Each structure stands twice: as C-alpha cells, then as structure tokens.
Amino acid sequence: MIEALQFEFIQHALIAGILVSLTAGIIGSLIVVNRMVFLAGGIAHASYGGIGLAVFFGLPIFLGASLFAVAAALLIATLTLHKRHRIDTFIGLIWAVGMAIGVIFIDITPGYNVDLMSYLFGSILAVSTEDLYFMGGLLSVILLVIVFYYRDILAVSYDSEYAALRGVNVRFFYTLILILAALTVVVSIKVVGLILVIAMLTIPVYIAEKLSNSLFSMMFISGGVATLFTLTGLWFSYTYNLTSGASIILVSAVSLGLFLLLYRGK
Amino acid sequence: MRKKISVIEINNLSFAYDKDVILENINLHVEALDFLAIIGPNGGGKSTLLKLILGINQSKEGTIKVFDKSPKKNLSLIGYVPQNTNVNTDFPIKVIEVVLMGHVGSKNPIFGYGKDEIACAMGALAQVGMQEYSQSKIGSLSGGQRQRVMIARALCAHPQVLILDEPTSSIDIKGQKEIYDLLKLLNKSITIVVVSHDISVILEYANKAAHINKRLSYHDISNKQATFHTHNKSEHFCEIELLQMLGSDSCESCVSENTQEKQWRKKI
C-alpha cells in the first residue's frame, strides 16, 4: 500500500476521498435531521441528466451535473413549499426523468461511448486536479455557511414553525440546504457514484447521531467516521482489486452493523 | 383597582379557509395578567385563532391587536409554546440550545452565542426549574420536562404574554399538574393564554374561559365558588356539569357539542 502512494492518481484518490467524506458528513447530518434523505436520492439520480447534457454539449461533467442538480433542488424546494402532500410523487418523477434525459443525450452524442458505470458507481481513481479544486471549494463554502448561519440552520432544522415565528427566513434556509445537498451529491459521484451516494450521506450520520448531543458535534463526528470508512474502503478496493465505491459502502454497512451490536448493550 | 392594560383585542373577527367558515364574529379581550383558557371541540377553531393571534394566518374580516399593534409588529412580546413537543426527539440538540432558539432572529454574533444570551437562557431554565438539565440531550427528557424547556424557550425573549397550544396533551397526570402550577406562578408577572383539552384542570387555574366552536362564548370564572355552584372543597370540578354550564350560556351549538366531548372523553 505504501509504495502505491507515489502514484499521482492514488494521491488524488485519497485527497478526494477525504474532502468528499468531510463534505458528506456535514451535509449528510443536515439531510438526515431535516428528513430529506429521499429528496437527496431524487436529486442524485436526476443529476445524471446533467451528465448526459454535459457530454452532448462538450461541457465539463461537473459543471453540467452541478447545474442540473441545483435546478432539480430548486424545483423540489418549490414543490415542497407548495404541494407538500404530493412531494413523494414529484420526487419519483424528477428521479426517473432526470436519468432518462441523461441516457438519451448520451445515446445521441455522436462517436462518444461513455462509461455509464463510472458515474453510477464512482471512479475515484480518475480524479483530476480540477476535480480536487471543485471539491475543496465546495467544502470551504459549506464550512463558511455553517459558521455564519449555524443558529438559523439549527433553528430551522429543529423546529421550523418556531423559527418562522422568530423571523427566520425558513424558505431561504430550506432551499440553501437543498442546494448544498445537490452540490454534495455531485462531488460524491466521483467517489462512490450516484447510486451509492445515499449510503455515504446516511450511514456515518446514523452512527454520529448516537454519539453526539449537538448538531455541530454530529457533523464533526460524521465527517470523521465517513473519512475512516472511505480510506478503509479504498484500501480494500486496492488490495483485492474491487470497485472502490461499492467497497466503501460495504465497509460502512458492516461497520454500522458492528456498531449497533456493540451500542445496543449500553 | 388600577386600569387593566389590553393585551389582545379581537373585534368582529371571521376567518374561512376557502369556503369553510372556521371562525365567525369573534370578540375577545385579554387583559394584563389574565389566565385565559381556550376550550372547545377538535376542529372548533382553537388552533386557527392562535395562528391569527400569532400572525401566521391573516383574516379578511375583523381586527386583531396585540398591545395595540398588528400581531406581526409585536411578535417579540409574544412567547409561544407550540403543540407536539414530542416530535423530533432524535434530534441531537442540548436543552440550552433549544432555549437559546428563543433569541434566534435577533442580531447574533458569528457562530456560537453571546455570554448575555447564555445567562438569559439559564435564567429562563431556572424559572421553570430545569437549569440542572441544561447540557442534557433534549430526547433524554420526559414529556413534562421537555414541555418545561419549551416554556423556557418562550420566556427567553422576555414576552409579556405566553401562549400555549395544548401544553399537556402528551404528559402524565403528575406532570400536567406541575406544568399548570408553573403557569400559575408565571402568571404573577405574565399574561397567559392556554388552549387545552384538560377542561377540569384548566378551569381550576384559569380566571377567564373562552369556549370556541366557530363562535366564541366568554366567561369570567375568577370567582369559582359563585360561578360553579357544584364546586365543593374536593378541588375537582365535574367536567360534564362544567361543559353544560359553559355551553348553555350563549352558544346554541355548544349543547350538541357536549355529547361529542363526552364521547371524546370516554375514549381516553
């Protein structure tokens, strides 16, 4: 394993793994406490439409996927505020239509044979320097938002009705959380792929929830736990020549099982 | 006797969702240091009236004034304790952070809380007898304790009037009494408005009662001996007699509601 560290693509994979794990830990916490897991799943799959469009128009994949995912997040935010009782139907719709758009646009792109699997299950060994900048940039933005708006985000997440009465702009923060979730999903696609991203956003958070007594410590612990899982999963992937994204998720799931067994006694 | 200050003043208020009339021609005057109990059947409009007082809903007919201004302008003078404090108990949040939420929306320092805010929140917790739990996770408290924390959160912003929506709906009998004793104590300096299903309990503590079922019938019950002739020294009112008395006064629909409420009570 040590000799592998001299390869640039391995270094990139490790840095990307750490950056994305921290991001997923923080945003995953917000997604879980706001009961938005299904929403994030919808956005993740819809973002495949953005990948298809980016391939067709020759744009950077991250840009296309980000724009599309943010658009899906805004749509979901609007629908949640106006048609809350039908939101599951709309998410299912956005989920499937986004993917269909992606598949069709890749079909009609002349002479381009994109590897669908690499987006669905991740391609962490193909992380470029630009990808790393994008991941680092997103993590910085998220940290800034948390530092400046921690109290408002906490109030909106815990009791949005009361937050609204105290003059907090609930709609703004709700939309902000969804947009950050959409961007987190996009950067996670490189590491675990858009099908497995939901596990990365929820498993570390579930463990952290049991161990923390504040939202802040929950974010901190989930970030650490996610990093541990990602690095362990990458080690398995490298040693036994397995798909990296699936290895990370299975390491997480097995750890969660062990954690729950040990934790139950306490 | 000094002149009473008007806390909430509602005149000729009507409210409808689309074409369903929820409230009709409501008049209500809450004075300083009143302890008002709002009772009535489910769907009778109690929660809607609260939402109007809090400025969440807007009425087209009639006026609502809170301290002589529209509710939205005087929100900082209202302390609100919502229903269902048992939701979201998995949320990782400390008691003190919940109370500090009472300050949210005001000007705040970047990340964390000011020293004065924490002192104020601890003071509010002391008022409800919960200061030793300030670092506990909210989910580890009992229903009654959690309700006290919610009251502390409302007190944190130093309100002039405290509005509670069914504060004891999910608390055991002992906890209910403790909550009402606490409210009675707070009532020495704050006006209190409580929506409740606990008719007998609320009438032992309240000095005014409003029965709402689309319309409102209002009763001054500060002199309980005179109002309820059935009242003896056992400290407990017979609920059914109370309902008959409150309903029969002016509101014809209350008579039919009596049977409904009785059936509802039997279910518990």
Description:
- The complex is a heterodimer of chains A (266) and B (268).
- With 266 residues, chain A is an all-alpha fold.
- Chain A has one domain: ABC transporter involved in vitamin B12 uptake, BtuC (Orthogonal Bundle), CATH 1.10.3470.10.
- Chain A has helices at residues 8-33, 37-57, 61-82, 87-108, 116-121, 129-158, 160-165, 170-192, 197-211, 215-240, 244-264.
- In chain A, helix 10 (215-240) packs across helix 11 (244-264).
- The radius of gyration of chain A is 18 Å and the shape is globular.
- Chain A starts with 7 loop residues before the first helix and ends with a helix.
- The mean pLDDT of chain A is 90.
- With 268 residues, chain B is an alpha/beta fold.
- Chain B has a single domain, classed as Rossmann fold.
- Chain B has helices at residues 46-53, 95-100, 115-127, 143-155, 173-186, 199-205, 224-227, 239-248, 253-267, and strands at 6-17, 20-31, 35-39, 61-66, 78-81, 161-165, 191-195, 208-213, 215-220.
- Chain B has a 6-stranded mixed β-sheet with strand order 5-6-7-3-8-9, sandwiched between helices. In chain B, strands 2-1-4 form a 3-stranded antiparallel β-sheet, with helices on one face.
- In chain B, helix 3 crosses helix 4 and helix 8 (239-248) packs antiparallel against helix 9 (253-267).
- The longest helix of chain B has 15 residues, at 253-267.
- The interface between A and B is medium-sized, with 26 and 28 residues.
